[in-house]
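Fold sample X.
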Amino acid sequence: MPASPAGSEIERLIALLAKLPGLGPRSARRAALALVKKREQLLQPLARALAEAGEKIKPCTQCGNIDVNDPCHICTAPGRDQTVICVVQEIGDLWAMERASAFRGRYHVLGGCLSALDGIRPEDLNIARLIDRAGTPEITEVILAMNATVDGQTTAHYITDHLRECSVKVSRLAHGVPVGGELDYLDDGTISAAMQSRRPF
């Protein structure tokens, strides 16, 4: 196979970009070309930002979020409810909750969910640390904000079983009809979950 006229450096850049979520080989080529064309405005600042992020960003030892500080800015923020922990699977889920401004307590990132198919076991996740946190006197409730998948719900049940010895209330996010959703466009599972999660009107 003939070598690319652009050389091995651009091919390496394309290969690395193609590993990012949402970028296939074609999108990676377009992104690489845009970076090279705008070297001073994009490529060089991006390279500096990546180097700085790799050097300074670290995981929070309390909740599992990432930040330049440990504990992170959420764990140390004044005014947040220190008695409630919201459990999420990934850091992106934590960011989504923060974007919605729907929760003002503390978080716990598991780092994934249990999956027999993928060989992910309880010891591969940040579950033991959660049990320790939930067992402290100041925690009164643990909210399980897991994905509405088989693996997500399996993980939620596993955590619930292991929190029985802690004197905390365990709740989960309601599943059902989204705001603005029309029943005719919803799948059967969503409609069923909405019916089971119904509440007084």
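Fold sample Y, listed below.
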Amino acid sequence: MRGDIPVDDATLDVFLELLEVQHRLKGSYSSTLQRVDARAAKAAIASGRPAASAVGVWLTEEEIAQGVREIAEPLIAGLPGEAERVRGVLEAVGGGRLKLKPVAEMMLRGDLEGAEAAAEEAGVDPTALSSLVAWALQPAFAALSQAISPLELGDWGSGRCPVCGSYAALGYFDRGGVFHLKCQFCGTEWEYPSGKCPFCGNDDPDLVSVIEVAEGKPLALGICHVCGSYWKIVDERRASGEVPRDLYDLWTLALDVVARRILR
């Protein structure tokens, strides 16, 4: 995959360290799932709502703060240009000026303006805060997804994740030719029509384009000409080797660059 990832080695090392931290956090968060009503989560999915709408953020303030501290370590060590902003968040949390659980709950509801206002009130960078909280929450919802699997999705036809509710901007064709969406937040996977926009549901073949970024590569870009959104595609039938699906978002970073050029 390395030749397809448009970042320098130092930045890639930070990405990989973040994945290792999240893997550890996923294990530690698994024990917290005893607080989650798994039946309510599954019932929500059966009714067409994401599981997160029923369970919310079950982690405590200290658990989220500990996750943020662990996530911050490789960022501070490996990305000097971001270190001050990251430390600013840690100092606000340590000094009691910022509570992370309310921010996490706002982000889960999609209230990004509320999260930004909380950052400004605490005097920290909004992007740094939202990134740290999101990276700390991802392992928790990955653990939830694993705990309530196999998912009984029934007629789930949404491009939103049935577990956390995020819109999926990544999909793959398996080796049998079946298309799946993969949530970039919690890792949940589900079957989905390959020619349908995950964001607005447009499935008019004349209004959906699929662009191959390079001949022979297993990477492609889906673009909706109704809502202007894009999603990244990995075709496992064309891959020369096995790449763990948890790395697909990293593997396809070049597609984000291409999309920004096309859609600007």
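Sample Y note: Residues 2-147 form one domain.
Also: The chain is about 50% helix and 10% strand.
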